[in-house]
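Quick one:
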Amino acid sequence: MELSTSFISDTFGNGSPLYQILNAQQLVPGEEPSYQICKLLYLYHPLGKKIVDAPISKAMGKRRDIIITEDISERLVKRYNEVWDVMSIDDYIANTYRLSRIYGAGSVAVIPENGKTEAPLTPDELRRKGTNLKFSVFDPLNTAGSMVGVLDPNDPQFLKYATIAVAGKPYAKSRAHIQLYEQPIYLSYTNSAFGYVGRSVFNRALYPLQSFLSSMITDNMVVLKSGVLVAKVRQPGSISDRIMHAANQFRLNILKSAKTGNTIAVQPDEDIQSLDLHNLDYAVPRNNILENIALSLDMPSSFLTNESLAQGFGEGSEDAKLIAGYIDDVRLEMQPLYDFFDNIVQHVAWSPDYFETLQTQDKDYKGMSFEEFFSRARRSFRAKWPAALEPTKKELVLMQKEQYTSVLEVYNTLAPTLSGENLAKLVDWTTANLNEAQNLFPNRLELDAEEVAKESEQLAKQNMKMTGVATAGGGLMTGNRPAGLGMSRMRGKPSSNSPSASKPDKPGKRGTDVSGDGITSVTNRL
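Output:
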């Protein structure tokens, strides 16, 4: 790529990082960036940080939902999240993945206090140090020469990397994790990572990234030239004395110093106008450069421009779905890092000391051994990412309306067949699901399930005395339809087939109407 060397030198300086990027020797499409070029691109290129960090911040913008499926206590999840935050695990994950994107490889390791890096990492060490564990994140220059890998295709460890060495000190496999960006290719040496490993995110985008800097030079030139004024004034004749030349120069100085609010006078045949830049249209080429960069990165272009993101992400358009899919892919690439740190945090958070404290607070753990507790907690550990594409307020309301309708249909179907404790459990389930629809019902619905069970039992006994027949749901079996708790949809009116419909109530013996959310019972006293 040929640029005006003198202009670049004057604009950026011979030793500036941008000057080094622009004048990368013999740069052609497909040229592989070196370690130094990758570092300069991230530190100084206007798009470098956005290319590397934007996907990371989007993917890690929300905390994972931690679930312990075999334990109803929320203490374990709370303890896990507290230890995760105290140890700043998110920072180590982001730094390691960031280096892998910049250079093609990055690694993180647990640093031992005694300096014996080759010693395996044991659960006792994790529990003894607790939140005082120390981590270090290494870039490829720190681990240069240790990630050559196995190049024998017949070896089970072919192109696999499990250990690192820093300053000549090897680290145990259990103590370190290596994160690659993209998979290694056989006999494809990566200059930026000093090994047969992954590739830098800038690997395919180096040429268009340099073109983007050239567009910045164009912007600078346009801005500088846009203030130029063209004065079409009458020129002095062939014979011009000093007085005429000085007068002409004085007029030009007045034009140069004039600003808003000033008035200048010109001759009828003279004209003053700005430099004509209307034919200069570089917006389309610049957008093409951004599209080429995004195409080279396999990244939605909205990450670079933010235009489509602002228009489509909230509207649920196809662009938004594309962004959500890309964020999910980034999370999958980061999953090995999360697995490495999940194992560490589990041993630190659910230690024997914490288990003793838990036994004093919860009677369910008193007859359990620590090994059983820890095994069950790890076995049932689940981590789920929240949706990358958030629904809008309108979409949430529509979904919760459908949920509300489905919950009531289930209740109306099952309530007539249940009584006692089973009916109470159904009421609990119904209220719990309705309370989840916070966009429909801001205030929570609270019902006493035990009281519902008692009323159901009492109603069933009264109906048995009246008919001598036990009916489901505590109601009267009249024809093919039981009447009673949860069945009558008429508030305060008995069904046409019930005995009370043909007999008037005795004086002083009025029917009792117990109404709730979807629950109506009619009790006729004898």
